[in-house]
Amino acid sequence: MKKLSVFILFIFLCTGILHADNKFEASLELDRVYPGNPVYLYLSFIGSSNVRQPEVVPVDGLRIRQVGSSTQMTVVNGVMSQSITYSYLVVPLNPGRYEIGPFFASFGGQTYRAEPVTLTVVDISGVSSSSSSSSPSPGPQSSPPLTASGNQSDDDTAFYEGNDVFLRMEIDKTRLYVNEVVPVTIKLYVDNVGLKDIEYPVYTHEGFSSGEFTKPERKRENYRGKTYETLEFTQELSAFKEGMYVIGPAVVRCKMISRKPRTSRRSSIFGVSIFMDDTFGTGYDTYPIELRSEEVSVEVLPFPENGKPDDFKGAVGVFSFDVNVSPSEVKVGDPVTITMTVSGMGNLDTVTAPEVSEDENFRVYEPVVSKKGNRKTYEQIVIPRTGKVKEIPGISFSFFNPMSGKYEIYNKGPFPIKVTEAPETQQALKMVAMPSGEHIFQPKEEFGQDILHIKYNMGRMYSAGDLLIRRKYFIALQALAPLLFIIFYVSHKKRRRIKTDRGYARLLKAPRKARSGMRKAKSLLDRRDFSGFYNAVQKTLEEYLGNKFDLPRGSVTPSEISAKLSNAGCDDEVVKKLNNVLSMCEMARYASSVSEISDHNGILEDTRSIIDHVEKL
Amino acid sequence: MNILKNYAFITIVYIIFTAELCLASDNDPARLFISGNEEYEAGNYAAAISDYEKARSTGKASAELYYNLAGAYFKSGNIGRSVLNYERAISLAPRDPDILSNYGFAKSMVTGKEPSPRGILSWRFLRIFLRSFTLNEMAMMASAVFFVFFIALGAGMVFEGQRAKALAASGFTALIIVFIVTAVFIKSQYLKSYAVTVAPSSDALFGPFDSATKFFTLHEGNGVIILETKGPWHRVRRPDGMVGWVKSVDVERI
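ok -> structure tokens follow
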């Protein structure tokens, strides 16, 4: 019991610890972004890591998807706490003010609520300078900028235009072809100004698909006769439709650091890193600013129709094409791997697998594609169906070279192979493993579908409603167990009492011993052993009454017995009879001749009658 | 004269014996079963169904008889009755792999998605237990565990040093008994009231009259529980708890 109490207390404590301070919170990485800029939404449950992912109700104008989760364990003041955070990526599609949530999480039978979060998506075109740009001032504007609607922006970000910090966008080519990759470089020029919290550029590029920004590079550049520190952001764009497009303007948000006057001049911004986080108070003030580049017009040309190959599928770049076939000797049904490699400069995403057609000679499977750097590889399995196959047909790859403005075609093969018929025992399906080990597949086997055939053996017949629970003998059988248990219980209790209660044990054996004593006395009487008879009678009575009333051997005296019998409610007649019998037995012990006692049978009967009376008490 | 009497006696006995044999053979389930099998193999599914149904009408049936009958219905395109008889076969032989395989295949032909069960039957372990044993087997299990319960109690009395373990064993067996008895109760109710839709489709209405609004539709092979009967209508409940009134002829109890 003590152990159980301690255990229950432990459980309560643990529950208390685990349930202590359960909280559910929602937060956004940023609450103000531009359209197309992704921002993280975090839903954190503090108190346990065993909480299911909360549902995020879709919001018009936002694309939300769950990207991961993380758990954490902390110990604070000896109290352990776990938490789990679900991360979502929110991509705003249009400007506006969006409320996401509320959010609900279930744990331990309770529902926890996190307040909704608000995301403001700013329209880039709404950001404008508040004064003319003919002579840009070196510092931030004195009044906050106006948004497109004419209202003041919600935060203090100011559009900055000056010669000490500015943004430029450069595109290698302004005339390019569909699918052609063109790098776009956005440069941040800085002259003797401290900047921090510089964000990645944001710009519109309608009609183009974009890759990821490369890691920004710091350089120095001489621009218009002045040396600047630059930070370059590079991204690849490729047009997917012909036409005239405007790319940009690019916008970069950052914070400008305003320093207290110094005694020593600094000619470089490296005394204060442009990526510095100056939160610990070195005497700087910071102002959020926006920098904006010029737009760039781009013309996207369609592929020329003249000379377009039939198998051209839109690949653009300068490529080389190579094909390798292995093995060159196989059996019918064995796989042959065709490895096709396209490498070079250009838009590898537009490169699709050169065609290897299935026909009556070959079974062809989907190629496995891998890409590494400027190389794209296709591994395709073909299986010759017959021994008559002598070669794998030629494979061609065509692409458009934007440098020359012409289509180029590579024709490789045909590739001779030797195919032998497989012996019958080996004409089984083969497991095929790709060289890269990424895919294992085998020709698909078709199975027919139908029910199984009938049974021929009728089996055991049952009558309707033939249930065991309705049969009387079964119900009666269930009573057997408790009945046996009751019998066992009672006898077990009796045995235990006999073992532990001496008086009870003597009481139980008294009648049996009395009967045995009487039988002995009778047989002595029959043998006319009167002396033995009276001894047996006395012994039987004394033993019986001693057992009956749990009297010690020495205290089985007539007076003691008489008193016990009287107390037990015995008739006086019986007591008198008993005293008479006992005195006759005493007399017989000391008499010279027991033949003087005439009524021996009477004594025997009296003794029986006394025992019978006492048994009924 | 004596010889004539003997011959007459023998003849009368022979006639009676033969007559009994003839009468018995017409309704003998075994003979009908074999005859049904022959018709099935000859592709005469309607005749096979007739023989199997006659065998069933004798009041006795076996899992194999229901299985073959279900197969004959399936082959003749009657999915509802096929599923019905597979259910009957399963109630007698719940672990027979052939019956389960064919039942699964027949169920796959049922139109629409089977509604997910709700309430106590949504507990998957209970559903598996109910499906895996006949009522008689469950009754025997309960009886055996019942005996074990008392044996455990007795052991606790005899072996005083192991009393805690014996009590724990008794408690555990008591829980098992409760579980099995509950399952027996549920299964016996199920056998009494479970029915399969045998009509190609049956509209379940809000009330037991033709002009009542339709609530949902049962397709042949869908299982339901019959809650009550009013005239030619049954009030039925789907596994997902939806209740409606259907025509009694559209469903048949297993």
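The interface with chain B takes residues 449-464, 467-469, 474, 477-478, 481-482, 484-485, 488-489, 492 of chain A (CB under 8 Å).
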